[in-house]
Amino acid sequence: MNKVVISGSGLYTPPFSVSNEELVLSFNTYVDEFNAQHSTEIESGGLAALSHSSAEFIEKASGIKSRYVMVKDGILDPKVMMPLIADKPSDALSMQAEIGIKAAQQALEQAQLNAEDIDPVIVACAYTQRSYPAIAIEIQQAMGTKGFAYDMLVACSSATFAIVNAVNAVQSGTASRVLVINPEICSPQVNYRDRDSHFIFGDVATAVVVERASLAQSEHAFNVLSSQCFTDFSNNIRSNFGHINRCDPNNAEKPDKLFHQQGRKVFKELLPMIYQHLDKQLAEEQIQANEFKRLWLHQANINMNMFVVRKLLGDNVTKLKAPVVLDEYANTASAGSIIAFHKYNQDFTTGDLGLLCSFGAGYSIGSIILEKT
Ligand code: COA
């Protein structure tokens, strides 16, 4: 089997930032207007009054302080509460292709490669803006990569699962260099009227190059020592958005067509699965957790990450051991652990080990053990 490396990574950060305070102001204005409009039903007990959100709660419960979005117009308007993203003609580059290419160009530059050196392109993210033709094929044409391209969706584990696919393809020889791109445009799927989740997501794009070790020229390369996936069905993180929605017009616009979750249940159920999954992988690889210089973890919730860090490494851990990016970026679905990897790997020297790990809807867990070349 061919040995495999990740030889470059890239990050595209959208132009607009939204703070917790801005979101909360808009949400609370919506709540006040709703409660005033429905005061009679609320007073008679027929309807529950909506409660205010708070920036302090958001930061304490999640670690999120702000998020980036591609389009800010509309999000903070209490009468709109969604990004107003204009439709584009079919011959224009889609938004996902546009931001995916920006991240991919950085990853190629780090890997010292050109687009024509790539065979497959995999676009992996929580949502694609259309079903077909694949965003990956659009990117293939726009960048001039060779071979083939496809999209895949595994919610928050899309990036790690796609890296596993890429690693398998390179190991077996069906590909030599794969571009994995994660254009995560989550903001259109946020229910900005839902107190429990209005603050959770942001937009971003990340990319990595996965290539045969014997071909790699980049000084940024990391050997892939182990890559594993795990899934277990759960309805606790769900979006019912899909191509069949319009066939039931009475329900097509209901809130279940947007992101919704049982955050507490996710916390309780997913953590033990993550521990078990990582224990098994580390035992198989005969690696002790304290050998990791860094954990590049999924970025959904700071408290959840701290549980994973403490379970693996104990209490006395510096912040740099498991860097947090969700304070600035919020939850960016599958891109979160790749942002952490991209921003926090420059201090690695030959032989240093790191763990890239995602977890989320499905449930799904993807974990990749990397060693600096
Ligand atoms: N502002 C103020 N208070 C709020 C609030 C808001 N926006 N949202 C909820 N609250 C209140 C609740 O009403 C509740 O009040 P109560 O105790 O009086 O009933 C209290 O805060 C705690 O709510 P809870 O939903 O239990 O908060 P939490 O500590 O579980 O934090 C999440 C919520 C979503 C941040 C957290 O559960 C989480 O991130 N879980 C992991 C989810 C995950 O990883 N998902 C993957 C997504 S891809």
List the main descriptive attributes of the protein structure presented here:
alpha+beta; ACP_syn_III_N; Thiolase-like; binds coenzyme A; Peroxisomal Thiolase, Chain A, domain 1; 3-oxoacyl-(Acyl-carrier-protein) synthase; 373 residues; nine-stranded mixed beta sheet; 21% strand; ACP_syn_III_C
Please tell me about this protein's structure.
With 373 residues, the chain is an alpha+beta fold. It has a domain at 222-372: 3-Layer(aba) Sandwich (Peroxisomal Thiolase, Chain A, domain 1). The protein has ten helices and 13 strands. Strands 5-4-6-7-1-8-13-12-11 form a nine-stranded mixed β-sheet, with helices on both faces. Helix 4 (95-111) packs across helix 5 (135-143) and helix 7 runs parallel beside helix 8. The protein starts with a strand and ends with a strand. Coenzyme A binds next to helix 3 and helix 7. Pfam families: ACP_syn_III, ACP_syn_III_C. This is 3-oxoacyl-(Acyl-carrier-protein) synthase.
